[in-house]
Amino acid sequence: MENTKLKVVVLFGGTSPEYEVSCNSAASILRNIDQEKYEIYALGITRQGKWMLTHASPDEIADTSWENHSGNKDASICPDRRVHGIRLRDKDIRVDTVFNIIHGQFGEDGTMQGLLDVAGIPYVGAGTLASAACMDKEVTRAIVREKIGTIKMAKYYSTDRVTFSHSPEDELKNIEEYFGGEYPLFVKPASDGSSVGISKVKNQMELFEGIKLAATEDFKILIEETIVGREIEVAVLGNRTPHASPVGEILSANEFYDYEAKYSNPLSKTRIVDDLPEEKIREIQNDAVEIFKAMGCEGLSRADFFLSTEDEVVFNEINTLPGFTSISLYPKLWGAAGIEYGELIDKLIELSMEED
Predict the structure, then answer these.
(1) Cα(151)–Cα(224) distance, rounded to whole angstroms?
(2) Model confidence, pTM
(3) Which among 4, 8, 85 is positioned nearest to 353, based on CA atoms?
(4) 3-state SS string over 152-187?
(5) What gap in Å lies between CA 351 and CA 229, rounded to an integer?
(6) What pLDDT is recorded for position 108?
(7) Any idea what DSSP says for residue 299?
């Protein structure tokens, strides 16, 4: 009898600082994906950039020991469209779609999407251009400002590794003048996720150190004013007619929601917002959908906002491949809407194969 299962690649790992997050996201997907419906291929990329097809268990992928699994085979996505899938040393495997869950650089920034476009293989999530634009926080702001002039965003200053290294004293002075000498400020890499390389700085010395740290992660660095208020997130699902989830809130155990607070500190919490007026909830949801459409996204995104103490909704950033672990807010938000984790995987795979 002919195998009618859809062949799905779960692509994970990668060389970015978010390697462990990606492995945990992949493990959660593999634990919950419908084995009766799909023929699944787990294709991992090590921190060093080696591609391998693995039969490691979800637990081994989650703890990153999959790299040493005895059954691993050298493999990669082949750009030759005749292959339409995975190339091994001794054979090719034709697949139907790729569930790319590589967070951060070289997975979420348009590079992997470009490879898959060249190969002619459908994939979950935003396309090449939208992925690249959403990954760069400054580009995102420029597009949102141009296409949706009503969205409020934090005031920011942009610098880069070369400009700052050539004249750090001048740049520090320029930054302080731009913000009127006010602190605290946030310093962040323009194109990293999971709060990697972000600092909250309260004086010039901390500003200097924060820029140095951000410059180790990315060429371009953003310095932003601090928005005092609640951290709000909304999940979006769909292609041409996207829908927003219930609104969630981050309750960080740390001074701000940094990498440690997100993934290591059990005191950090997330919750479904139930204490705002319905019109404010709708405003946040509508903003999330409008930003999704303005950026040209597909499949999924998570839009992050602040709700200021003046009750203003302030857009922070959009993530085109948000965390997909068991504790991640994206699946939790859709769970609150009645879409369980396995069903959410099904919907994303279906969306990846829709005609443009």
Answers:
(1) 16
(2) 0.92
(3) 8
(4) EECCEEEEEHHHHHHCHHHHHHHHHHHCCCCCCEEE
(5) 35
(6) 96
(7) E
